[in-house]
Design brief:
The protein has 1 helix and 10 strands, in the order H-E-E-E-E-E-E-E-E-E-E. It is an alpha+beta fold. It has one domain: Macroglobulin (MG2) domain (Immunoglobulin-like, Sandwich), CATH 2.60.40.1930. A 5-stranded mixed beta sheet has the order 1-10-9-5-6, with no helix packed on it. The chain has a 5-stranded antiparallel beta sheet with strand order 2-3-4-8-7, with no helix packed on it. Strand 2 and strand 3 form a beta hairpin. The longest helix has 26 residues. It comes from Thiorhodococcus minor.
Length: 163
């Protein structure tokens, strides 16, 4: 006669619970360790220039120490779901790296950050794209992130897109 209880093919529910708790712990540790890489602490944010329309022309903002950042996005109008050429001019700031982070102001649109390449001293460029939004009009913030010896600086630029 066979003993069916001796070799049960199904692991116990307690084992599954222990594995689930361990998996949650690993995921929480990864999130804790990776969070500063995805969202680093900003040392200074430049004042937003609300009078400049980035869809029509390049815009420039300044920092307290006199450093300046100019952002130019092409094609004009900044159409969604279209490759965009990003040009950044940095003056009076020793930047180790430059990135542009696109974020929806009123709606989370996912992680969208582009690392730029230094073409010549102070001149950075790269290409990126913003997604199409379900709204007819969407307000975006393109934040130029400058890694410097004194910390991370952020230069915000806002613009609207229209479907």
């Amino acid at each position: 006669m066979e003993d069916k209880t001796a070799s049960s093919p199904n692991p116990s529910p307690l084992l599954w619970m222990i594995l689930a708790i361990l998996a949650c712990g690993v995921l929480a540790t990864l999130a804790y360790k990776l969070w500063p890489l995805l969202y680093p602490e900003v040392t200074e944010v430049a004042a937003l220039d609300t009078g400049c329309d980035l869809r029509l022309s390049p815009c420039e903002v300044g920092f307290r120490d006199g450093g300046r950042v100019l952002l130019d996005i092409r094609p004009a109008g900044i159409p969604p779901a279209t490759p965009l050429q990003l040009h950044v001019l940095v003056r009076g700031i020793e930047a180790e790296s430059v990135e542009v982070d696109f974020a929806g102001v009123d709606m989370y649109m996912g992680f969208n950050r582009v690392a730029l390449v230094e073409e010549r001293p102070g001149h950075y460029q790269g290409s990126g794209m913003i997604p199409v939004c379900v709204r007819d009009r969407m307000t975006w913030e393109a934040r130029v992130l400058l890694q410097t010896p004194r910390g991370l600086l952020a230069a915000p630029f806002r613009f609207d897109t229209v479907r």
